[in-house]
Amino acid sequence: MPRPAPPRPDLALVPRPRRLSSRPGRFRLDASTRLRVTAGAEQAADLLRTYLRPATGLRLEHADDGVFSLALDPALTGLSEEGYGLTVSEHGVLLRAARPAGLLRGVQTLRQLLPYQALTGRSGTEVELPGVEITDVPAHPWRGMLLDVARHFQPVSYLHRFVDLLALHKLNVLQLHLTDDQGWRMPVAAYPRLTEIGGRRTQSMVGPAGSTRFDGRPHGGSYTRAELAGLVAHAAARGVTVVPEIGVPGHVRSALAAHPELGNHPDRPLDVWTHWGVCANVLGVGDHVLDFFRTVLDETMDVFPSPYVHLGGDEVPTQEWETSPAALARAAREGLPGPRALHGWFIGTMADHVVRAGRRPVAWAEDGTALPPACTVMSWRTPKHAWAAARRGHDVIHADHRRTYFDYARDPGPGEPPAQPGHITDLRTVYGVGLLPPPGEAGLAEKVLGVQGQLWTEFVPTPAHIEYLTFPRLCALAERAWNPTADWPDFTGRLDGHRARLTALGVPHDTLPAPTAHAPA
């Protein structure tokens, strides 16, 4: 059977809308174009202007008789929280949704319908949209991407750009990995040493975990509350929720460097870790440690209004607890079978605090053992752990490292930049992420919130490197998160056109160039 004709370049939309049909004619935006904005659609109208004004100079002011309409209609219940309907003809544009989030998703579709040159800010004052009829609803409510800023710090200005690239692909969660052994980026007013000391390391390992080479260059950075609040607002305006991750009780060497009293050996000074891999140092289990991190979480939740707070919880060696009299006594006092059970107890204690604050805790599923019942489970080792958690009643987010970890190399060729050793995660592998439950267990589908990509940054120091590894693999992830129907030839046909859109935005999706300034996303 011959392959279907490729889509028109201006309809190379990623992710693919649920229903799309071409209409005759094209709608021209020019100096006479006015928006008709109904009550509740103001945020979407502002976002549309944010994207169009730099490219075209058009102000797109409101007029009751404007032929470009953005309308919020709660009666459109079939569009759910994030769905939208879009009609473009030569006589006008109508974007409708039942909820404000749906209008924001529709604005991203309009953004993709623009001529590529309009994305660069070099277009004229007139642009055209192709005639289309679209009805679009996402398959999953959690469509996320994690960015690790603990291993390699990134300025908040770049995080703004990264959010815009996520929004363009209708991803709605940025998980910000703010703390780890190699750096603490989250400002905590009660404990300023966390960033003053924990936010800087003397050097970084060159090569994979176990290497004996180091670069000899100090690395550091942290955010202010104002910067993070600005990021949260920027993301919210685009329909993206920023989920903070404060990892406990492992991956905490930077916190122990700043506050040795939190450790199992408080008299032993530690530095911020300069190695990659799993650090043996973990938090102590005294009441003062619990109170310390309750305060950290309180300040984090003050900055991030996200309904979800990620507590980490993965890769927690228990050797220190097994030889600590205080940890052994704590395990006995809590009625635990042994010091290894302090892992789940610690996560449960922090999860309870998050729940009392009216939020929902998230934790990594390290293996198939049970996590505290309140936790949403993010499964990274194997999908089997996700389905086991779903059977226990947890909401789950798929994050299978073999398909969603973008720090693995994209290709096997010798020209690939340094990457996490292990295996190759190519575009087809990401596209094959499985979100459907095992045969005979269709009811588990309701426990699947969605899927998330991860970019850990041991080998990824620059924004250009971030984008090279993220794209176009994020396009495949976004496609499967939004639309449950797999059609690889159709996807790759649209991606051919979408790559030109990425190029217009300055995304280095083909080769990794020397660091350069980025075009605004």
Automatic annotation (TrEMBL):
**Which Gene Ontology terms cover its molecular function?**
beta-N-acetylhexosaminidase activity
Fetch the Pfam families from UniProt.
Glyco_hydro_20, Glyco_hydro_20b
- Where in this chain does the record put each Beta-hexosaminidase bacterial type N-terminal domain? 12-136
Q: Where are the transmembrane segments?
A: none
InterPro entries attached here? Answer: Beta_hexosaminidase_sua/sub (IPR025705), GH (IPR017853), Glyco_hydro_20_cat (IPR015883), Hex-like_dom2 (IPR029018), HEX_bac_N (IPR015882)
Where do the segments described as Disordered lie?
1-24
The EC number of this protein is 3.2.1.52
Q: What class of enzyme is it?
A: hydrolase
Reactions mediated catalytically: Hydrolysis of terminal non-reducing N-acetyl-D-hexosamine residues in N-acetyl-beta-D-hexosaminides
**Which stretches make up the Glycoside hydrolase family 20 catalytic domain?**
140-484
Name the protein family: Belongs to the glycosyl hydrolase 20 family.
Q: Which SUPFAM superfamilies match?
A: (Trans)glycosidases, beta-N-acetylhexosaminidase-like domain
Q: Which GO terms describe its biological process?
A: carbohydrate metabolic process; glycosaminoglycan metabolic process
Hydrolase among keywords = yes
In Swiss-Prot or TrEMBL terms, this protein is called beta-N-acetylhexosaminidase
Q: Which UniProt keywords apply?
A: Glycosidase, Hydrolase
Q: Which residues form the active site?
A: 315
Would I find Ligase among this entry's keywords? no
Which cellular components does GO assign to this protein? membrane
